[in-house]
Design brief:
- The chain is about 40% helix and about 15% strand.
- It has about 250 residues and is an alpha/beta fold.
- The chain has one domain: Metal-dependent hydrolases (TIM Barrel), CATH 3.20.20.
- Helix 9 packs across helix 10.
- The chain is globular, with a radius of gyration of 17 Å.
- The structure holds fe (ii) ion.
Length: about 250
Amino acid sequence: MIDLHCHLLPGVDDGAPDLETALDLARLAVDNGITHAVLTPHVHPGRYENTLVSLSPVFESFVAAVSEADIALELALAGEVRVSPEILPMIADGEVPFLGEWQGKPVVLLELPHSHIPPGSDKLVAWLAARDIQPMIAHPERNKDVMRNYDKIEPFIEAGCLFQVTAMSVAGAFGEGAHRRALELLDAGVVTVLASDAHNSKHRPPALEAGRLAAAERVGEAESWQLVRDRPGLLAQSKFTDSAIPSVA
Ligand SMILES: [Fe+2]
C-alpha cells in the first residue's frame, strides 16, 4: 500500500519527535503492509515554519537512516499545507513540496482547521485551479463544520477537489461523527485515497489496513485497493522515480 499523508519526518512538526520514534513508526508502517510513504510535515506559517528548502536536508538524512536501519519503506517528501493567506506566495514561489501529480497537474495537500472551514477557502481553491494546481483536501471527515453539515463539503466537490480520508476514520477510531462522514464520502464516490495521517504509534498509527478492510465492507474489495494502492500509486508515481511503485491495476 502507498501512504500519501503521514508525519514520520522527525522533529519538524507534531509527528515523530526524534529519529528513534520515526524509525519505529516506519517499521510499523512496513508491518502494516505499506511499501511507499510520502512524508507530509505540516507547512503552517506561524506554527510550523517548514518549507521545501528547510525540509529537504531533514528528509535526506531520514532516508539514509531508514536505509541504514534496513527498513523496506520507500520515501518521498511533500507537505500538508494549512489553508491561510500566507501560503499563496509560498506556493507561487515553489516553497511548498507537492504531493505528486494528477492528470498532469501538481497536487497540493490542503489542511483545513479542525474547528471550521475558514471564509475564503473557496477562493484559495479557485486561485489554485487558475494556476493549474490540483488541490487535495486532507481528512474532510474530521472537520467540525463538515461533521455538523455534510453540505459544507459540496463546494469543494463542485470545484473539482480531490479528497483524502483518514483510514482510521473509516475504521471508526476518530468517533462516530468522523466515521459517519467518512462512510458518506465513500458512498458518494468522491474519496480519492485513504491515508494514515500517522503522528504516533498509539492514537494515530501509520496504518492503512484497518481502514481498507472497513472500506471494503462498504464499497467493495476492488475499490478498497483503489483507495490505498492504485490511486495513491498513480498520484505519487513521479515522486518515486528510483523505486518502482507496484503495478497499478
Ligand atoms: Fe496530517
